[in-house]
Structure formats: structure tokens, C-alpha cells
Amino acid sequence: MQFLLTSYNKKSGRFEILGDEARHIAQVLRRKTGDVIRLFDGKGAILWGRITQSAPEGIQGEIIQDGTGVHQEQWPHALHVYQALPKGAKWDWVLEKGCEIGVSRFIPLISERTVVRIAPADVGRKLQRWRAVLNAASKQCGSSWIPSVELPMTPAKALAQAKESDLKLFAWESETADPIWKILSKKGFSAGESPLNPVAEAVRRARGTWGARGAAPRGPASTRGEPSGLVLGSGGKGDSPALNPYLSHLGRAAQTVALFIGPEGGWSIKEVEMAKEAGFSLVGLGPYVLRAETAPIVACSMIHALLSLSA
Asked: What is the pLDDT of residue 255?
């Protein structure tokens, strides 16, 4: 188990832990003076410290192994999840699981069909809670990186913010959205060009078992030139492409990935059109409609896996 530092003085080698974390160490775990604990700073550093004072009000100690130069590995790309706030505790679940699979940044959205509305007076309290969820998730999964979570914003503002991302994705459940392998096949690569043909073959075989929901032809708005990003949706027919030649190029270029996930009621047509105008394209995750809390985890896992193959 690891514990989040409240403060760390590199010059003196002293550290301090306050708040709930201190109470957990002193009262629940009953760690005492002389015990050695693993520490992290939320920015990648892992350290080991010895407790010199243990009390619910605060833990004091000294660093016995300086790990500031030893940073835990991250994915080769930063994944930013922009999601319309789901109902109930689903957002907490997305934060927790997203942290576990390596999301770098979370931005909640208030879309046209978002049911959740947060009063201005409650925003600060909500943000504090979300950060606590991420802190706990990082602690539990052993990550020394704590993702950031930001204030809610509109899709229009979020699309403008994400326009500089290397790879832009906008989840949409419409059957007119092409599956990701079909979008990649439009890049014109053949199976013989792929250095990792077994992966493409695995996708090709899986394609036969997923079943297809006949995708309608793409309209003019989606066929004007090459897409500059990917938008995630569902369904679609077509042979599986050789993924890796495209990914080997994309993996080097995509340092930042922006992924948009809609609310339980789906995106409005206006929001989808805004995404297209911002340079996003539509692609599918499979033949089924995913829940709002399931979609980001499935999408992030696919993105990590495919981009990491080529990194």
C-alpha cells in the first residue's frame, strides 16, 4: 500500500501527511514510529519513508530512499476523457476505473441531454469529492500518477479546448458511425504491409463473430477529405484492415488523445455536427450500444492497446 504525500521538503528530507490519509495510517493501519511506508507524490515519484511521529492529526517522517528521479512508467500518450456527466454514482465509477487504466485527465460535460445539473454553489464540493475519488483510486491501483479532473463545461467549449489534440475522438452510438477498423482501412494499407499481421488477423476473425448491424452510407459531411481524428460510435460492416502500418505512424504522432463520451440519452444532432466541424470523425466500437459508464472504459482500453502496439 502507498500513501499520498501532503508535503515533502527535498532539502531536509522530511515529509508530512495530513487529513484522512494520516488518520487512516495512524488509526486504521496502526502504523507507528519507526515503520517504513511507501509514498507517492501524484506526479510519478515513488519514495520510501520512515515514520518519526504517528498521530491522527498528522504523520511526520524522513525519506530513506529518494525516488524523485525514479518515475513510474506511463502510457506513451496522454488520454483526456471528456464525458457528459452520467446519473448517480456512475461518474465516480468512471473516475475510479479510468484512473486504473491510465486516463490522464477528466473533463465533465453538461450537454443538451445531460440529466445531471450541478448548482454553482455545489461545484467546489463536487470537485473536491472527485479529486478524493482519484486520489483513492491511484492509491489502490499502485499508480504514482493522479489524473486531473476539471470543472464542468459545455461541449462547445470542450471541443474548442480539444482542437489541438493529436487524435480526436467523439463517441456516438449511431449506426452511421463506421467501426474503428473500417476507418483505419481507408488509409489504404494492405495486409502485406503490416509488421504485426497476427493482430490484424485476430481482428479479422473477431469481426466474423461480432455480427454486423448494416451501417448506413456516410453522408457528405463525413466524406469531405481525410478525417483528422476519430469519433467513436457503434456497428458497421466491412472487412478488418491491417491496423498496424497506420498505427505505427499514428502512435508516433499522437501524444495527446481527446475522447468524448455522451450522456445516457445520447448526443444531439447539433452536438454531433459541432464535433464534425471541429475535425472529429465517427467510428464504432462494436455492434452494441454501451452504457455511459461502460463506453469510456472500453474505448480507452482499445486506444491504449492499439496505440501502444506501435509506440
From this structure: 82
Structure confidence at residue 65 (pLDDT): 78
The CA-atom distances, in angstroms, between 305 and each of 108, 127, 225, 276, 298 are 24, 30, 27, 25, 11
pLDDT at site 142? 85
C-alpha dist (Å) from residue 41 to 2, 105, 129, 188, 233 = 10, 17, 19, 45, 37
**Residue 281: all three cell numbers together:** 470523425
Amino acid at 171: A
pLDDT grade for 182, boundaries at 50, 70 and 90: low
CATH 2.40.240.20 region(s) of the chain?
Answer: 2-65
- The pTM score is 0.74
Q: What is the DSSP letter of 229?
A: S
Alpha-carbon distance of 188 to 34, in angstroms, equals 63
Match domain 2-65 to its CATH number in 1.10.3210.10, 1.25.40.10, 2.40.240.20, 1.10.760.10: 2.40.240.20
- Distance (Å, whole) CA 266 – CA 32: 52
Rg (C-alpha) for the chain, rounded Å, is 22
Give alpha helix (H) positions in the chain. Answer: 19-23, 90-100, 123-141, 155-161, 180-185, 197-210, 244-253, 269-277, 295-310
Quote the distance between the C-alpha of residue 248 and its chain's center: 21
Q: What is the rounded CA–CA span in Å between residue 73 and residue 37?
A: 21
